[in-house]
């Protein structure tokens, strides 16, 4: 793919595009896609807007019709938190029930174009199901490593799409280690949604859809953050749109975490937090103690004027139930955490009553345990 190189997020080093290069060979930091100046958008558009993409031919696309998810007003929630306008972008309307399909579609399209036939992924659920589905679509064999204690509904979904599933006992980090050992020993491609620079190229479409909407970019975007793929990708999309003159301002980006696993929120506040401080949380989708792109998330928070806050399980469950009964939105606990975070941000005056806020509803409630 001559129009694309990979740029280190720490040392700015440039490297040739490859599915086998997932971290900077020089310093070990994560990589982002860098487009050569003479090839910014190619033949790709999203929501009617030209968009740079790292693959070429349409026949290599592994799409399942992801994206273009609805944005709906949540008036009860707005009143509850004391804001004039709150909207929800229903990312659970993607083909496998989560936002992960945006990133997976592009990552697997690149893999297909490069002739990759077998990939490895590790996931607590949503990304594993997404990779399994899109690998099947692309004719690629997928090995998905998942924690043994992941929600059974998510594990069943991974299996039904046909991936070879590897169940790993122990903490979430043990699953990642097992996946890394497996791909390295067999010389396979590690299609990691945590590290793949191509995954972020898919999640940036979230921003393009907001820009193309009838009311444009909101004042605040609130996203639940574990590894930060949607958070980083959305920011990347907004940056591209601003540079192209498609929007005239950037939103404030807010990263919400569970207080059981809060490396980003703690770092943003300047507090000490380590893996040993982790405790169980109902929000399994953001239970990531050592996110490899943490520094990118922190940089975006500061650049956008956003905040990162952590919320407890009690508030998450309360919001999950209320959204279902009051708004007709049955989201998984990870998404409900974003609304609990929205409430805190409003209470602490980080969002003004007259501002327009948008919350990413990242996953469907049927993919997780029902609220207790």
Write the layout of secondary structure elements.
Blueprint: E1 4-8, E2 14-16, E3 31-35, E4 45-46, E5 49-50, E6 71-73, H1 75-81, E7 85-90, H2 100-113, E8 118-122, H3 126-138, E9 141-147, H4 152-160, E10 164-168, H5 172-186, E11 189-190, H6 197-203, H7 205-212, E12 220-224, H8 229-243, E13 252-258, H9 263-269, H10 294-304, E14 308-311, H11 313-327, H12 333-347, E15 356-361
Parallel strand pairs: 7-15, 8-9, 8-11, 9-10, 12-13, 12-15, 13-14
Antiparallel strand pairs: 1-2, 1-3, 4-5, 6-7
Helix pairs in contact: 2-3, 2-6, 3-4, 6-8, 7-8, 9-10, 11-12
Report on the structure:
With 372 residues, the protein is α/β, with parallel strands linked by helices. It has a domain at 71-97 and 198-367: Rossmann fold, CATH 3.40.50.1100. The protein is 37% helix and 18% strand. The protein has a six-stranded mixed β-sheet, with helices on both faces. It has a four-stranded parallel β-sheet with strand order 10-9-8-11, with helices on both faces. The chain has a three-stranded antiparallel β-sheet with strand order 2-1-3. The chain starts with a strand and ends in an 11-residue tail after the last strand.
């Amino acid at each position: 793919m001559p129009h694309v190189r990979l740029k280190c997020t720490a040392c700015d080093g440039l490297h040739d595009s490859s599915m086998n290069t997932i971290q900077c060979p020089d310093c070990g930091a994560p990589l982002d896609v860098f487009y050569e100046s003479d090839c910014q958008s190619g033949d790709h558009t999203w929501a009617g807007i030209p968009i740079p993409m790292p693959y070429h031919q349409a026949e290599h696309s592994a799409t399942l019709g992801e994206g273009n998810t609805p944005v709906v007003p949540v008036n009860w929630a707005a009143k509850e938190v004391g804001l004039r306008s709150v909207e929800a972008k229903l990312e659970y309307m993607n083909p496998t029930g989560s936002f992960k399909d945006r990133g997976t579609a592009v990552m697997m399209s690149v893999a297909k174009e490069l002739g990759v036939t077998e990939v490895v992924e590790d996931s607590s659920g949503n990304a594993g199901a997404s990779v399994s589905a899109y690998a099947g679509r692309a004719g690629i064999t997928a090995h998905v490593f998942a924690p043994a204690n992941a929600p059974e509904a998510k594990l069943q979904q991974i299996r039904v799409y046909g991936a070879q599933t590897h169940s790993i006992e122990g903490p979430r980090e043990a699953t990642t280690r097992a996946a890394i050992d497996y791909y390295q020993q067999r010389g396979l491609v590690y299609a990691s949604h945590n590290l793949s620079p191509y995954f972020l190229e898919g999640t940036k479409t979230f921003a393009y859809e907001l820009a193309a909407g009838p009311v444009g970019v909101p004042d605040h975007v609130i996203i639940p953050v574990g590894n930060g793929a949607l958070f980083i990708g959305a920011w990347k999309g907004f940056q591209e749109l601003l540079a192209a003159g498609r929007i005239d301002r950037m939103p404030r980006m807010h990263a919400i975490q569970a207080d059981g696993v809060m490396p980003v929120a703690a770092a943003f506040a300047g507090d000490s937090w380590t893996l040993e401080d982790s405790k169980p949380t109902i929000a399994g989708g953001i239970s990531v103690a050592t996110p490899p792109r943490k520094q990118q998330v922190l940089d975006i928070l500061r650049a956008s004027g956003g905040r990162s806050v952590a919320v407890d399980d009690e508030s998450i469950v309360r919001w999950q139930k209320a959204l279902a009964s009051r708004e007709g939105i049955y989201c998984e606990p990870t998404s409900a955490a974003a609304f609990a975070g929205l409430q805190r941000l409003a209470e602490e005056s980080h969002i003004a009553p007259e501002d327009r806020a948008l919350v990413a509803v990242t996953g469907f409630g049927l993919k997780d345990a029902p609220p207790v």
